[in-house]
Amino acid sequence: MVKFYDTSALLKKVDTLFETGEKFVISSVTLDELENIKTASNKDADIKYSARKLLREMDSHINDFDIVLFEDRMLKPIIKIHLSITNDIKILSCAINYAKKNNVEIEFVTNDLILKVLARMFFKVTSVDEDEQDDYVGYLDMRLNDDQMNDLYSNPNKNIFNLKVNQYFIVRNEANEIVDRLVWTGETYRNLQFNNFNSKWFGEVKPLKGDVYQQLVFDSLSNNKITMIKGPAGTGKTYLALGYLLHKLDKGKIDKIIIFCNTVATKNSAKLGFYPGTRDEKLLDSQIGNLLSSKLGGRIEVERLILEEKIILLPLSDIRGYDTTGMSAGIYISEAQNLDISLMKLALQRIGKDSICIIDGDAKTQVDDINFAGANNGMRRASKIFRDTDVYGEVELKNIHRSKIARIAEKM
Description:
- The chain is α/β, with parallel strands linked by helices and 412 residues long.
- The protein is 35% helix and 19% strand.
- The protein has helices spanning 7-12, 28-39, 45-60, 76-79, 87-102, 113-119, 146-154, 212-223, 237-250, 279-284, 287-296, 299-307, 341-348, 378-386, 404-409; strands spanning 2-5, 24-27, 65-68, 106-109, 124-126, 139-143, 168-172, 178-184, 189-191, 197-199, 203-205, 226-230, 256-261, 311-315, 329-333, 356-361, 392-396.
- A six-stranded parallel sheet has the order 14-13-15-16-12-17, with helices on both faces. A five-stranded parallel sheet has the order 3-2-1-4-5.
- α2 (28-39) packs across α3 and α11 (287-296) packs across α12.
- It starts with a strand and ends with a helix.
């Protein structure tokens, strides 16, 4: 069975269309529509961006799909059922012609409701999932009855709850009390393994108020090469990430902290324009500078660490060709929701085997640029690619510790 995509479905598949290597078919009408969408004044920026990206991807994979050139004669099967001739009808007629000419079964893929109804008269019809919401949080938080508890501890080498490698398991009893914290290694369950972090900048860093989700972060930081920390503002993402990296720096376990920066202005805020000064001075005047100054006691201390090359600020615009091999570095990708897939891929490809990496951000609510939203978001894609590997851990934090005001504001 051959998949035949209409324009709406292709736009939904822009980031995964060529992943499987499965050849597909489209109509020349779809190419015309994509070209028109690119420059249309009445289309929103998200759709226009997807059309541009899709055309670039198709140009790079020209041998991975077939194009049916529309001709008026192809409309004969459609005219018989007295339908108005639209672009959708032309696309459908191309699919009918392709199936008949090549004697193949077609799976017609569309997200257009009317076209679905019409196409079902001729083919099997499917659609691309409109909601690509990914519910993976890095752990299973589950209440077990006595029988389930017995199964768990009687079979420590069996993955009876279908966990991914390095996925955590918060075990609760029937009274909803936490009785254990485990992680699946791929071969067995192990208990959490971590100590509190200490440094001269942060003092002792420990899970705030015994936060169980922060405990999982501590374990992942202590045991994995890459940790992704997700969650809304005030949950402790930066506190834990910087606290751990400064602890490693203070103890001589790493030689420097390299912060990959993508200084995107906050969504819906006014742009302040050009900042004078060197690259570091410009970055210190941006959100990454504010973040470091607030956590390290002021700008003077941040500038001192930069001067000593203990902290390196590296904008993603300058990252191509960079290699951390031999640097014994801790890589920090902060506000990572503001990276698209290509930027995240480029950043992670810079990381040498003697370095570690922490990614933090909130791709659900804090994306500040439409080009980084939805299926094109680098955090989301990195999670899908790295999860279930032995170098990676991921935890979504839930509890907002910053203040009562911050907890209430999260409901806005």
